């Protein structure tokens, strides 16, 4: 499999079955060769390279007979720290906008390096956007009429962003008008660009006036150093997300004098201090390392700070960063009255709302894109019953039954990550893993190998992979379901959000058993919200008015009030009425619902205003979240000649009536009489109702593996 060769998997997601035929499935006991199924050969970790000092790495790079292709990783050599990504170094003689450099442009904007909008991007335009509070924002419909600085408009084009996503439509004008912002949006909806684009665009015309003086980093003399005085501070919960935002900032700062830097734990201070001393206008940081630098005023001051962004706020509060956040937001030398505060997340629990109420201006903008904590229909969600002792074989068979594709496997513990990684590697699956016990260099190398396709299967704990935005992640597997102690349904939402990003299609497969029953009720509601098919072992949790095929009025779904997952509480602990304040605790009445431009296209100027809350909700009209017309059973299934037998469809059993081989997603097994049905790798019977969003039926599960 090439680094970016995901055509087979993409076709499978679109057409309902992969085009490649592997013949009849072998029995589970027969050893399979992953390379025969299209997977690249696994490679061992290069300890020799990654244990070298910075000086040894530079000498090896200089003496290399064949120069390494830096463009693949944005200007970073193997063994380098992620904070050393290539930057546009400004020179005084450039004027307002610097000249273009083709080699650097390729490193920053190469299409293989970051996520671009997908073929199902049109579905995103149907997401409803709710403005809460007293402030109203008129959304933009195009980047052309957003008032961007010319250099920023060009960078947006180079990044492949053609039209703004719903959250970008509202956040861009809010920031341009100077409002504090609280934004809650689905994962993979473009939150990072929503704050980077307007903030940097506003500063581009004022950078010389606002920024601290510094020399040209390319010509700095030995001993010449400057204190970092950032204009923008972005705080995020983990190291991988910090370096990812840094990569995005490097793109949007291209051809400007704004200089981004990133600091995070695990990387030696000696590797970060010299980069800060060259000057810093935009600082991305994790809380612990940021406070370390805040206690070193000779290296860092926040007195020039104009913007503070708290990204993934809910995760930082879940991770006991609350005291650190309060210190960062008010304990530095910044002038609070001159700072614009922005908070972004996919969910907003009460402690995050309290933090916003304490620090943000009273007239701040509050925006919700879809329901807080929701996923979207670009992700097909399969839930499969697998007993704990059978998970490894089920995982291997699942990977063998699908076309090779970039896959993230989530587990609940560091020990499980190591064990699953070891099992897959010894099974010749090209894999790598990340968790908090790995050294920072090991973590960065794992992400780099995953991005490049060298190790297209990544085993990760939920926290370590929070916010990862990697091109062509086609499949997410919940090897362990996130129980409430591991984040519950919010964590499930974040995990599956690693695929299906910005209009791309994705598949999420979750292994479920009786130990996960405390998650079942909310999981079923989450599946029904995007019209997913409910497996038979979860049918008892289907609310009244809904069917196992995923049909029903999603407006009637009620999630737990004022939980970390819900939007807030109403009277008597019930969910708030539509159009109400949602019990947010922010103290302002809710705004009328506004929706992003719909069928007229992104560039349309007409807004669709929903009826007042007192009126009945509008009928389903084929918009976001509604199932499309019935289609033939596709993804994961082959046609069956007869109705399924009455025997329980237990995991690992065979179909009573043998189907014909169809070259589908896991070819049909050889015809063989049996008393039961529903084998692993065998086609599932089609549901009674094909109202399943065109993905095909989810395999029914039973009680056994």
TrEMBL record:
- Domain DEAD-box RNA helicase Q: residue ranges: 141-169
Q: Which residues form the Helicase C-terminal domain?
A: 378-542
Q: What class of enzyme is it?
A: hydrolase
What Pfam families does this protein map onto? Answer: DEAD, Helicase_C
Domain of life of the organism in this record? Answer: Eukaryota
Q: Spell out the residue ranges making up region: Disordered.
A: 13-35, 562-705
Q: Kindly state the positions of the motif Q motif in this protein.
A: 141-169
Query: Is Nucleotide-binding there in the keyword field?
Result: yes
Q: Which molecular function terms from Gene Ontology are attached?
A: ATP binding; hydrolase activity; nucleic acid binding; RNA helicase activity
Q: What is its EC number?
A: 3.6.4.13
Protein name (Swiss-Prot/TrEMBL): RNA helicase
